[in-house]
Amino acid sequence: MKTKLITLFTTVFSVFILTSVQAQDDCALKYNMLKTDYKTKNYESALKNLNYCLENCAKLTANIYIYGGNLINKVLKESPEKKAELAALGKKMYQKRFENFPNADPAKAHSDYADFLVDVGGDKEEIFSHYQKAFDIEPTKLGVGSIIYYFTEVVERNKSTNLKQVFNIYDITVEAIDAKVDGYLEEIKDLHAKEDEGQTLLSSEKRKLKAYTQNSTSLGKVKIIMDQKIEEISTCEYLVPLYKQEYEANKTDKLWLERAINRMYKKDCTEDPLYVTLVGQYQEVAPSPQASVLYAGILMDKGETNKAITYFEKAIDQETDTEKKAKNLFKVADIFRKKGQYAKAVSYAKKAISYKSNLGRAYTLIAVAYQKGANTCGKGEFEKRMVYVVAEQYALKAARVDPSLSAYASKLARSFAANKPNKKLVFNNDLGLKSGDSYTIKCWINETVRVP
User: Fold this and answer.
1) For the whole model, what pTM was predicted?
2) In a domain, 31, yes or no
């Protein structure tokens, strides 16, 4: 009897092992078929294998859900009539992903699910909740369209009741975008350096350059859209009462002070006494070259230009980090630009570029400053219009070194190009110059360009 029980147990156990092994083999087979079907665009078979994996192998690998998400998106675009079927499959897939792989790139998973729900017409509250989860985990994981959708909802939900929330989300998002763009720009700079040295980029490098450029351009457009959406509520009329109310609770918070100062500066609220208070407090909380630059800007507002320049120069000299030095120099340039002192603005912008060659905003500042000087740097129409030639070059340079500015910089370049000397004006110029000749724009610009 004992022998029979042992034999029975052994048989059952063996069957169990064989069944488990067979199930694992089937899962591995179906998963590999899913990958192969997806890569060969056999989407109908891929969908069946995806469904099998979800039902029987949900814990096998997180890659099931990565391939599954890409697959569903592909089919949804090519066969929109299958939306209802794909909606059900997609919801099941993401729920199983959250259950079985909650720590596998969770921010992107929630953002991707929200994107999917948008595409299939999902519940608005559910969509927003998943974008919010993604944002709370890691805002840089939201895609371009995701950021726009999410921030639009944030504005609509809070603009009348909670401006602080809108500004906080805006600041966090823009800081995240800037961090991503800075990373792309460094890669772009290195690849451009190889091209400028006459080296031929490898195929892989060309693909990277294209991807980095496209990503930077897209993120730049997102910032433009976000600025447009926040423009109406981000005015001195709104900002001053808000920051007065929040000041006491946040006056020792360096980040809060930075954001408040930057927003008030951007919206030209610098003449309000609150701005002076914020800058003074910032100097106490976080004494730094950046704080000195801001204080010098206040001196400029008071008409103490010479004293302000002394502070500017001291602040620049004290900064040892080249990245921060470039940004401080640009801030000085922008302060002079706002005061209409374009020669000084250009001088500081060029210094900023000497420390950070891909600081696109410095190039656009120079381009705009030159355009402002077009009517004062030249005797006749030909000489005045030649200023637009150099302004266009700086705008184009900005778009090349910083694709996130390409929409704005390219618009500037087109505007400047439309004002360059035409063929008739070149032919009839009093200087005896012809197309292709070298010409130096004098006065404070002092740039040499080619006649168009």
Assistant:
1) 0.84
2) yes
- Could you read off the pLDDT of 283-339 as tens digits, one per residue? 999 989 999 999 999 988 888 988 999 989 988 999 999 999 999 999 999 999 999
Identity of residue 430 = D
Q: Pseudo-torsion of CA 35, 38, 43, 48, nearest 10°?
A: 10
CA 137 distance to own-chain centroid: 18
| Residue whose token pair is 């410095």 | 362
Which residues, in sequence order, are bridge partners of residue 450?
438
C-alpha 374, offset from chain centre: 32
d(CA 65, CA 54): 9
> Domain total for the chain?
3
Pick from 237, 242, 224, 92: nearest CA to 158: 242
d(CA 135, CA 149): 12
In terms of domains, do 96 and 175 share one?
A: no
User: What is the extent of the structural domain holding 37?
Assistant: 2-104
Is 136 inside a domain boundary? no
End position of a domain, from candidates 69, 88, 104? 104
What tens digit of pLDDT does each residue of 123-169 get?
999 999 999 999 999 998 898 899 999 999 999 999 888 988 999 99
pLDDT of residue 20: 45
Q: Which residues contact 6 (CB under 8 A, 6 or more apart)?
A: none
Of 371, 364, 436, 375, the closest CA to residue 407 belongs to 364
Q: Which residue has 């890569």 as its token pair? A: 39
The two tokens of residue 86 are 């794909």
Report which of 55, 48, 110, 107 is spatially closest to residue 75, judged by C-alpha positions.
Answer: 48
Tokens of 111: 């953002």
Sign of CA dihedral 234, 238, 240, 244: negative
How much is the pLDDT for 24?
A: 57
